[in-house]
Write a structure and sequence with these properties.
Layout: E1 6-11, E2 15-18, E3 25-28, E4 31-36, E5 42-43, H1 45-51, H2 53-80
Antiparallel strand pairs: 1-4, 2-3, 4-5
Helix pairs in contact: 1-2
The chain binds zinc ion.
Zinc ion (ZN) binds at residues 19, 21-22, 24, 43-44, 46-47.
Length: 81
């Protein structure tokens, strides 16, 4: 098996499933996750680090941005009340 090509996409449901690369059961949460390009199955972060560390770095940035914007929205909602 060659190096799997990975992409970042949005996971819409929390689930426990098998990573498409290492075949270990992992928990995946809603939000940005890694997927295989060929089968579009979820890939865990450990495999992501091995095969596409730059994508994992981008994912981490995405999560930070998501948390940041959620906090911003909450702060503005409080200001509106
Ligand atoms: Zn894996």
């Amino acid at each position: 098996m060659g190096t799997p090509h990975l992409v970042i996409s949005r996971n819409t449901g929390t689930r426990r499933t098998y990573c498409a690369v290492c075949d270990q059961q992992r928990d995946f949460s809603v939000g940005l996750e890694l997927y295989r390009v060929d089968t579009f199955e979820l890939v865990c972060l450990i495999c992501g680090q091995k095969h596409a560390p730059e994508l994992v770095a981008l994912l981490a940035l995405g999560w930070l941005a998501q948390n940041f914007s959620q906090e911003e929205c909450e702060a503005h909602a409080i200001n509106l009340n």
